[in-house]
Amino acid sequence: MSNIPPSHFSSLKVAMLAGGIGGAKLVLGFDRIMAPGHLTAIVNTGDDFTHFGLKICPDIDSVAYALAGLANKTYGWGLEGETWKVSDALEVFGAPTWFQLGDRDLATHLERTRLLRHGKKLSEVVDDFSERWGIASRILPMSNDEAPTLIETKAGVALPFQDYLVREKAQPVISRILLHGGYEPEVLPEALMAIEEADLVVIAPSNPWVSIDPILALPGVREALAEKYVTAVSPIIQGKAIKGPAAKMFAELGVQPSSLAVMRHYADILNMFVYDSSEKAYAAAEIPLRVLPVQMPTIMTDEADKVGLAQSILGQFADQIGAL
Ligand code: GDP
Questions:
Q1: Which residue, 39, 93, 170, 304, has most beta carbons within 10 Å?
Q2: Ligand 1 centroid to 119 CA: how many Å?
Q3: Model pLDDT, residue 1
């Protein structure tokens, strides 16, 4: 694989599709090596919800806090050095505190909600916050429209996503995932443009079912991707998710969880697929014709891992395209 110095990537444009935890890690890696403004992260809003009257966008905030250098280093969500005074006081009232809202994090939700009530669009609020936080890459919500993911359980209940993930701790067995919750959201035009202008599209190692599929299901996205060189990084390593219910979802939806299953999930839009070097290499017969599977270390613990993975992906892309 080419060991190309970062300066060689300066003219390249990358668009990423991302959720929160795995998404934020790899978006950060690319942000640190791309020229300012050359990376656009298109982020899932299917997890967004309203709590205490506040608009909360968990995936956008995870990505933005990471790029701003504000993210909590332990959890993968929330802010570093957070305090919990409001949450403690709410507890005294017996108010619902299952979704943890730190004091400083609350300021983000309060101000976002205020701006939205004044008629700003979500993408404008995200741009505004990004500028204030000194973020050089562009973060875009996948849509400005409502697009809530609902989880239908075997018990026949349709749970809003955060109720399933956080309040119910992803315990209920899934029977179906309802993307966009009955709404018909439009993809953000800037997101479509970012895909069209990109040299490379990277699908982050995010949950395929609830972080990436909501983006792919927006009208026009798959058609735009069909024209592009698309790579994805597996969030499943050795049959397990690093964090969260991705592997459990595969199993409950009738698919053995594995990186190979992730590759097959995306096969019709992929050119290259990155899976972890610790896994056994795929047999030739397992690989769809158009997809190049590539093994790399994909566990991102610190910033060096994140940057290293982004560099390896760009190096591999350069080898394939032969034009850098
Ligand atoms: P969420 O929206 O906050 O649930 O976050 P994502 O969908 O972006 O991320 C969840 C996925 O990220 C899980 O399936 C994890 O396995 C994956 N993930 C988290 N950290 C890593 C990592 O360091 N490497 C890889 N390959 N996947 C990761």
A1: 39
A2: 33
A3: 44
**Which residue from 60, 242, 262, 275 has its CB within 8 A of the most atoms of ligand 1, so it is best to mutate?**
242
Q: Which residues contact 32 (CB under 8 A, 6 or more apart)?
A: 303, 306, 307, 310
pTM above 0.85, yes or no: yes
Distance 147 CA to ligand 1 centre (A): 21
Helix (H, G, I), strand (E, B) or coil at 40: strand
Please choose from 21, 73, 313 the residue to mutate so as to test ligand 1's pocket, defined by most ligand atoms within 8 A of CB.
Answer: 21
Domain covering 6-47+143-323 in this structure, CATH number: 3.40.50.10680
Ligand 1 centroid to residue 276 C-alpha, Å: 13
Could you tell which of 16, 17, 25 is best to mutate to test the pocket of ligand 1, judged by most ligand atoms within 8 Å of the CB? Answer: 25
pLDDT along the chain (324 residues), means of 10: 55 96 97 96 98 98 98 88 97 96 98 98 98 98 98 95 96 97 97 98 98 98 97 98 96 97 96 98 91 97 97 95 66
33 and 99 in contact (C-beta within 8 Å)? no
Q: Which residues fall within 8 angstroms of residue 122, CB to CB, at 6 or more apart? A: 45, 55, 57, 116, 141, 144
pLDDT on residue 156: 92
Nearest alpha carbon to residue 282 among 246, 247, 234: 234
Residue type, 50: T
User: How remote is the CA of residue 189 from the centroid of ligand 1, in Å?
Assistant: 26
